[in-house]
Design goal:
four-stranded antiparallel sheet, single chain, 2 helices, 9% helix, mainly beta, Neuraminidase
Length: 327
């Protein structure tokens, strides 16, 4: 008969293997590594890329390259199209949104504070984005912006824990208060992730709660995706969310160094990546977007890196693909 300590060790290993197999049997989504973005045609590579956004109208990608104080615009192959630099207008770019007519809105910071500036499709500066009506700008702290297909513009106000909407001319439209399910004290302690708008839904990652809040355009809370934790299908620090072509929702978890996928009802259907520095692995990723070809673009400050992965769906109980044999 085996010694007691060895029997316990064998039981522990068996339980771990069973848990891993159970997780793999639930995995219905995977991804394969394609390439790292290289800013060809530019004298500078990426330096602390903090945000990546996708313009579906023009099939281009916008990167807030904070270390170089610029917005880099890339084509579908990750090649540099042009860049926005305007150090007298914004110093550090924070976020960016594109309108259907080609105008580009840049949220940036200066020593005097944050502002939103408008550029045309050629990268020429036009004017500060006007804010007509709504809360006094001095009472807000805008940390993220987005635009929908109708060119309605969404501003995420960290100070007021709310979303402010404006039309393309800067006219105030509405205000959506966040975290109505929390006490006033708990609301004030929340950290906000990257704002995302897709298919008549507004998504707000709440990293401290470990969930993503899903709102309708009228501000009605539809559901919360994920729960706090470090196990399969759970979220430790969700920072960004994006939808694929099938309506699945992929959540970027900064502290788990991974992407957690959910179906349209919020059920976990797989995980991608993990902690590492090899191809297909992440280290404290900051931003993520999925394009019209179901390719995932993931930005992280460490290694000044943006990786592109191709999303796919395994059949049946196929194990989620390990993207690299070495982390």
């Amino acid at each position: 008969m085996l010694p007691k300590t060895l029997r316990i060790a064998n039981i522990t290993i068996a339980l771990l293997c069973a848990a891993a197999l159970a997780q793999s049997n639930h995995a219905r989504i995977s991804a394969s590594y394609l390439f790292d973005v290289k800013v060809l045609g530019s004298e500078q590579g990426l330096l602390r890329p903090q945000q990546v956004r996708y313009d579906a109208s023009h099939r281009e990608y916008y990167v807030a390259d904070t270390g170089n104080d610029r917005i880099v615009i890339l084509d579908e192959n990750g090649l540099n199209v042009f860049e926005l630099r305007a150090n007298d207008i914004f110093h550090v770019p924070i976020d960016v949104a594109a309108l259907s007519d080609g105008k580009i809105l840049v949220l940036g910071s200066m020593p005097t504070g944050k502002s939103i500036q408008v550029f045309d499709y050629n990268g020429d500066y036009l004017y500060p984005f006007p804010l007509h009506g709504g809360p006094d700008p001095v009472e807000t702290d805008i940390i993220s912006i987005a635009a929908d297909s109708a060119d309605l513009i969404y501003l995420l106000d960290d100070r007021g824990q709310r979303i402010l909407t404006y039309d393309a001319n800067g006219k105030f439209c509405s205000q959506i208060s966040l975290f109505g399910d929390l006490t006033e004290k708990d609301r004030g302690e929340q950290v906000l992730g990257n704002l995302s708008v897709s298919h008549d839904m507004i998504y707000i990652p709440a990293p401290m709660i470990g969930s993503v809040y899903c709102y309708r355009m009228d501000g009605t809370l539809v559901r919360m995706i994920g729960q706090k934790g470090g196990a399969y299908g759970e979220l430790s620090f969700p920072i960004a969310i994006s939808e694929d072509s099938k309506g699945n929702m992929l959540v970027l978890d900064k502290h788990r160094h991974s992407i957690v996928a959910y179906d349209s009802q919020g059920k976990p259907i797989g995980e991608i990546g993990g902690k590492g520095t090899g191809s297909g692995w992440f280290y404290h990723p900051m931003s993520m977007v999925i394009d019209s070809r179901d390719r995932i673009w993931v930005a992280q400050i460490f290694q000044n890196r943006i990786q592109v992965l191709q999303l796919s769906e395994p059949n049946g109980s196929e194990i989620t693909e390990q993207l690299s044999s070495s982390k």
